[in-house]
Amino acid sequence: MTKPNRYYDNLEQNLMFFKVLRKTNDFIHANPEKHIYQMGIGDVTLPLCKASIEAMHKAVDEQANKETFHGYTLGAGAPFLRNAVASYYKKRNVELSIDEIFITNGAGEDIGALVDIFDIDNKVLIIDPTYPQYADTNIMDGREIIRLCANEENGFLPLPDPNIKADIIYICSPNNPTGAVYNKQQLKQWVDHANKTGAVIIMDSAYEAFIEDPSLPRSIFEIEGAKTCAIEICSLSKTAGFTGMRCGYTVIPNELARDNRSLNRLWKRNRATKLNGVPYIIQRAAEAVFTDDGMCECMKNIGVYKNNARCIMQTLDKLGIWYCGGVNSPYIWMKCPNNMGSWEFFDYLLNEIQVVTIPGVGFGNGGDGYMRLSSFGDTNEIEKACERLYALLKGI
Ligand code: PLP
């Protein structure tokens, strides 16, 4: 008889996002006259930049003619897009050759797939709370997970603990859900730790475009020594509104080797086997993001989300509630008042003011007592949600 993967039994069965959805839908069902205000949504709400739309129209027309038609693109991505990504890194003085860049169907795909090139015996370090996919994807393979506690004392930015031995280290900066961002000195400590111990860092930079402080690193490869210990996963989902388009890129430096084997070569082999390329039309749209016009328009959209974040932060400031994130990140991580647990506070906000948020505990036990507020919603809705939040919590 076929044996299903037994490690799936170790996964948390009740996915937090579904629970939020179920509770919200139950509320709507019971109170159809009430309006729901979204401050939970991690999806973008503004359209693609014009440059991407024009590039897609052009690419569609190309596909209509024998002379300009494109079939398969390389598993690692079309050279035109890999060149555009290399130029984007160059603006931050990071030199990459295009064979170090892999085009993906979004960061989620590579977070899920990259573990293929690592042995099952590797121990995995996850910062808790954090984006759940890092743990889940390793639990599915049966790897041991070690959790490093992020908390208010360490600014939700824990540093390496020499007593914890791990082989694969996940870092997300700017962080989802906490919005906290490692500075160069802190990231250097992780890089030095990984080089010293032989660990590999998987750096999730999906929110790098939200960093406005020029002193903060937008890529781990801005840190000396990172090319011998890090892989970076990026996404156009939040940078350019590509959540429904699906495109991102992963960087695996040629220098990165373990046990005398190049991880770049293993990944190349993996992609050649498992991916027949990202759609040509999408890659052209992605290329357009990296043009001056494309990037300028994307940054305008990010500016709208940042204004939303400012509105949320000002409300929390007025209320005197502790939070982090928001400035260099689309997420604000707030402490629940009166020592409420995350789900208790979620229910309170939904029932009293119909504001939907994301319970911090859904990102790990270390997130209990906190809430993730997102700036990706509609500006009018966020303003109204903030007014309601203030009115409800000012006396608490
Ligand atoms: N990494 C982080 C930290 C995210 O928050 C998300 C999506 O919200 C992803 C990766 C997945 O991004 P993508 O849409 O590129 O798959």
Describe this structure in words.
The protein is α/β, with parallel strands linked by helices and 396 residues long. The protein has 2 domains: 14-43 and 294-393, Aspartate Aminotransferase, domain 1; 50-290, 3-Layer(aba) Sandwich (Aspartate Aminotransferase, domain 2), CATH 3.40.640. 38% of the residues lie in helices and 14% in strands. It is built from 12 helices and 15 strands. The protein has helices spanning 16-30, 50-63, 79-90, 107-113, 133-141, 184-197, 237-240, 263-274, 280-289, 292-319, 342-353, 379-393; strands at residues 37-38, 101-104, 124-128, 145-149, 168-172, 200-204, 230-235, 248-251, 257-258, 261-262, 323-325, 331-335, 355-356, 358-359, 370-374. The strands form 4 sheets. It has a 7-stranded mixed beta sheet, sandwiched between helices. A 4-stranded antiparallel beta sheet has the order 11-12-15-14. A two-stranded parallel ribbon has the order 1-13. A hairpin with a 2-residue loop joins strand 9 (257-258) and strand 10 (261-262). Helix 2 (50-63) runs antiparallel to helix 9, helix 3 packs parallel to helix 9 (280-289) and helix 10 (292-319) packs parallel to helix 12. The longest helix has 28 residues, at 292-319. The radius of gyration is 21 Å and the shape is globular. The chain binds pyridoxal-5'-phosphate. Residues 42, 106-108, 131, 172, 176, 204, 206, 235, 237, 243, 248 line the site of pyridoxal-5'-phosphate.
